[in-house]
Amino acid sequence: MRIQFTERICSNIKLDVHVAHIDLGASMIRQLSRIRSQPSSNYFSWFAKFRQTSNRDLSKGNVSALDLAFDSKSLRTICENEDEAIREYGQTVTETLKHRLADLMAAMSVNDLLVGHPRVLEGGKDDQNMLIELGNDYQIILCANHPDNPVTENKKIDWSKVSRVKILRIERNYV
Q1: Are 32 and 7 in contact (CB under 8 A)?
Q2: Which residues contact 8 (CB under 8 A, 6 or more apart)?
Q3: Spatial contact of 141 and 161, defined as CB atoms under 8 Å apart
Q4: Strand 164-172 vs strand 67-70: parallel, antiparallel, or unpaired?
Q5: How far apart are CA 89 and CA 32, in angstroms?
Q6: 19 versus 155: which is more confidently predicted?
Q7: C-alpha–C-alpha distance, residues 149 and 126, integer Å
Q8: Are 24 and 4 a contacting pair, CB within 8 Å?
Q9: How many Å is the Cα radius of gyration of the chain?
C-alpha cells in the first residue's frame, strides 16, 4: 500500500512524502510531529537519520531507496547542517544543495535524477565518477559505493544498477 502526504516544516519549506508502506508513513508522521518545535537546520539531520533506518524497511518490500554516504565527516556535517553549508558555500548554493540532496535521497537509482544535469565524468582521476551541478559554478562529485560496483561489459559503472553512492566532494568548477 502506498501513501502520500505533505508536511509543512516551517513557513517556507514543505516536505512531500511518498511512502511504499503504511507503517513507515505513520512512523515518519510521528517523528515529524515530535521535532516540529526544533530549528529548521535539525530537519536535515533528522531526515538523514530517518532515511538510514527506513532504507532497511523499504528494502524488505523490494522498494529500495538510494543509500547516501559521505567521504568525510566534515562533508557530512556541511550536508546535514544548513548553517555550516551557508558558511561554506553561501545561501544560493546551499538552497540548491538542499534540493539536490533531497533528490538523491528520494531516488531509487542515480538514473532517477533529472535536475542538476547529472553526468558521468570520463577520463583522468575522476573516471567513472558522477557530477551534479549546483549552480554558481559549484558541483557535487559522487561515486558508486557498492562493495562490488555493478559494471557493464566494457568495465564501466552501470549507473542504472547503482543504489549506493558516496559524495566525494563539493567543488567549484573553474572551467
Answers
A1: yes
A2: 14, 15
A3: no
A4: parallel
A5: 28
A6: 155
A7: 15
A8: no
A9: 17
- CATH fold, domain 66-175, is YaeB-like fold (3.30.2310)
Given this model, what pLDDT does residue 155 score? 87
Q: Is residue 88 over pLDDT 80?
A: yes
> How is residue 154 written as a grid cell?
566494457
Distance CA 71, CA 63 (A): 26
**Residue ranges covered by each domain of the chain:** 1-64, 66-175
The predicted model gives 6-33 an average pLDDT of 50
Which residues does residue 140 pair with via DSSP β-bridges, in sequence order?
Answer: 132, 170
* pLDDT tens column, 28-37: 555 555 554 4
Residue closest to 148 by CA, chosen among 127, 163, 167:
163
Alpha-carbon gap, residue 76 to 21, rounded angstroms: 28
C-alpha cell at 161: 544498477
